[in-house]
Amino acid sequence: MRILITNDDGIDAPGLKVLDEIAREIAGPEGEVWTVAPAFEQSGVGHCISYTHPMMISKLAERRFAAEGSPADCVLAGLYDVLDGRRPDLVLSGVNRGNNSAENALYSGTLGGAMEAALQGVPSIALSQFLGPKVFDAPDMFEAARVHGAALVRGLWDNGIWGDDDYRIFYNVNFPPVLAADVKGHKVAAQGFRRDSYFGVEPYHAPSGRRFLWIKGGPQQTPTGPGTDAAANLDGYISVTPMRADLTAHDLLSDLEARLG
To answer: Which positions are annotated as binding a divalent metal cation (predicted)?
Structure first.
């Protein structure tokens, strides 16, 4: 089995090392694990691709590359340059430091990498580790992902719904903010929405007098509605959310046609 891995936290991120362990367990001793990850952190870039300028790519070790681009760029580099047309069986993106539940999924470079793989017709899974008080001071904040990741990925690989639709399914997996022993299991969950928790800006004045703006996130420990991802995570469950890149609000098409007709 050939697996391509990437992330948005950068080539040296600890979560990528966890993902490498997961991928190697899935691929097996006869398999191949290839890494193409951003040379620098690319958190929050979503599904950005760098089509207005070239990106440098460097070989760091056997089957390990860093590219000066987004996670989606890294997937494209892996598919069409590093692997030279040899398609991977699976693309894994993560393990992200922080959750990509609820509205975070829309900003996530981790999901951007998985989404690009799906658009290229390759099965893909994004994996993220929800953070919180119970894991911040733990010896390994990725423990839940490290211990439960391989079994979850194998379960999706063997039993997940993949299909060959134009907009293929990819999966968003979020591990709860608890230690591995306290994970209650997994739940298939819809993408939730954190009410009253939005991104905003915080002004900052540099010593030079110049004014800057920091992008500031909202509280992450806010549960979403019943049956959704962040609610499951905060209750101790791994959330598994099937996704597509198709942004059409299909439920509104007929009604809108009637209104405009």
So the answer is: 8-9, 43, 96
The verdict on whether residue 43 carries a ligand-binding annotation is yes
Strand partners, 185: 237
Using CA atoms, how far apart are residues 178 and 138, in angstroms rounded to an integer?
A: 10
Gap between the Cα atoms of 60 and 62, Å rounded: 7
Rounded to two decimals, what is the model's pTM? 0.96
Contact between 104 and 150 under an 8 Å Cβ cutoff? The reply is no
Write the DSSP assignment of 117-130 as a string of letters.
HHHTT--EEEEEE-
Question: Is 8 one of the annotated binding-site residues?
Answer: yes
Q: What torsion do the CA atoms of 10, 102, 51, 72 make, to the nearest 10 degrees?
A: 50
According to the annotation, is 158 in a ligand binding site?
no
Element (H, E) at 241: strand 237-243
pLDDT of 99-136, one tens digit each? 999 999 999 999 999 999 999 999 999 999 999 999 99
pLDDT digit string, tens, across residues 189-243: 999 999 988 889 999 999 999 999 999 988 898 889 999 999 999 999 999 999 9
> From start to end of 132-230, where are the E strands?
170-175, 185-188, 200-205, 211-216
